[in-house]
C-alpha cells in the first residue's frame, strides 16, 4: 500500500486491519463460498452479531445487506411509505433521499433550511416517515442527539423515524430506542471497499411493509422487507451477495469491539475538536458550520478564504495527506477532512500540524 493517508470522506482510508483480513479471506477461499452453504450462514451470523454489539442495536432489530445506501433510500420508499414522508434537508445527501421519494410519486414534503442552519422541526402530523441525516456529509452538519429525541417526542406513534447514519457509524452513538430504521454503507467509517449497504429495521417497519402490500401496493421484489426477513432468518440473503464484503465487515467490527465503541467515540470527539480548532486558528480557513453543536464529528468542513481547495489539496498531497474537496457547488471553496476510526490521534495531530505550515 502507498504511504499516503486518505482523509477523504468516502471512499476513505481503509481500516488498518483491512489488508490482513483480505489476505485471510483469500486464504480461506471466502469469495468462492456458496451463499447457500453453512459457511456463509456462519459469516452472516458473525457479522450481524458483531454489528449489533458494536452499535448497541436492540435484539428486536433485523440487519439486512444491500448494494449501497442509495439502494436503501429506494427500499424505504418502496416498503415504508404509502402516501408521504417528510424530509429534513440541508445538503446533497438528505436531498437525494427526498428526490427518490418523489421519483416514486409520493406526496413527500420537505423542510429545507439554508446550509448550516438548524431545522425548525415542524413535522406534518399525517406523515408516515420522517427522514433525517445524522451527519450531512456534503456540508459537515451534525444532527444533535437532543434534537432527535425532540422529534421522537413530538411525532405520532405510527410515524416511523428513519436515520441516515452513513457517515457517522460507528463514531457517533445512536439511540435505537428512538429510531425505527437506520442505514449505512461501509466505505465511510468502516474503511472498507464500497458496494455494501447495511439496513437496520425494527418490527414496526415490517408491519408497515406488510400493510402496504396488503393494500395492493408494490413493495418491490427480491429486496422487499418480507423477502429480506425470510432469508435473514436463515442467515442468508435473497440474491448472491458480496460474501467477501460481508466477511470483512464482520472482521472489522470485531476489531472495533476490541477497542470499544465508547473509546472510538471519545477519540472521534478529540480529533474533531483539534481539526475545528485549527480551522479557527488559521487565517485561510474557517469552520463552515458556525455553531459548534452542529459541527460534524466525522467530516470537518472548512470554508476557504483567498485560496482554492485544489491548491490546498495539492500542497497537502505532497506531504502525503489526501484531503477531500468541497461537495457539489462548494468544490473549490470548501475542504472536507474525514475523521473515521482508522485515523489515529497521532495521524490527525500530524495532519493538523501540517495544515498549519501551509
Ligand atoms: C455517502 C453517503 C450516502 C450514499 O452512500 P452510497 O453507499 O454511495 O449509496 C448517503 N448518505 C450520506 C450521508 C453519505 O455520506
Written overview of the protein:
With 358 residues, the protein is α/β, with parallel strands linked by helices. The protein folds into two domains: 5-13 and 260-355, Aspartate Aminotransferase, domain 1 (Alpha-Beta Complex), CATH 3.90.1150.10; 18-258, Type I PLP-dependent aspartate aminotransferase-like (Major domain) (Aspartate Aminotransferase, domain 2), CATH 3.40.640.10. It is 40% helix and 17% strand. It is built from eleven helices and 14 strands. Strands 2-10-9-8-5-3-4 form a seven-stranded mixed sheet. A five-stranded mixed sheet has the order 1-13-14-12-11, covered by helices on one side. The model has no long low-confidence stretch (mean pLDDT 97). Pyridoxal-5'-phosphate binds at residues 10, 68-70, 93, 133, 135, 137, 164, 166-167, 185, 197.
- Give the full name of the CATH homologous superfamily of the largest domain: Type I PLP-dependent aspartate aminotransferase-like (Major domain)
Strand order of the largest sheet: 2-10-9-8-5-3-4
Strand content: 15-25%
- Which overall shape is indicated by the principal axes computed on the Cα atoms? globular
What's the CATH topology label of the largest domain?
Aspartate Aminotransferase, domain 2
Largest sheet: 7 strands, mixed
The overall pLDDT, averaged over residues, is 97
Rg, Å, rounded: 20 Å
**What is the string of SSEs from the N terminus onward?**
EHHEHEHEEEEHEEEHHHHEEHEEH
